[in-house]
Amino acid sequence: MSDFEYDLLVIGAGPAGESAAMAGVKNGLRVGVVEAHNMLGGNCAHRGTIPSKALRNAVKQAIAYHSHPLFRHIHDSQPLTYPRILEAASQVIPKQVELHTEYFTRNRIRVHEGVASFLAKDKVEVIDSQGARDVVAAKDILIATGSRPYRPTDIDFDHPRVYDSDTILEMKHTPRTLIVFGAGVIGCEYASIFSGLGLKVDLINGRERLLSFLDDEISDALSYHLRNNGVMVRHSEAHDRLECDDHGVTLYLKSGKRIRADALLWCNGRTGNTDSLNLEKIGLAANHRGQIKVDKSYRTEIENIYAAGDVIGWPSLASASFDQGRSVVAAIQNREVRFVENAPTGIYTIPEISSVGRTESELTAAQIPYEVGRAFFKDTARAQISGEDVGMLKILFHVDTHEILGIHCFGAEASEIVHIGQAIMQQPGEANNISYFATSTFNYPTMAEAYRVAALNGLNRVNRR
Question: Which of 17, 112, 30, 9 is nearest to 312 (CA)?
Answer without folding.
Answer: 17
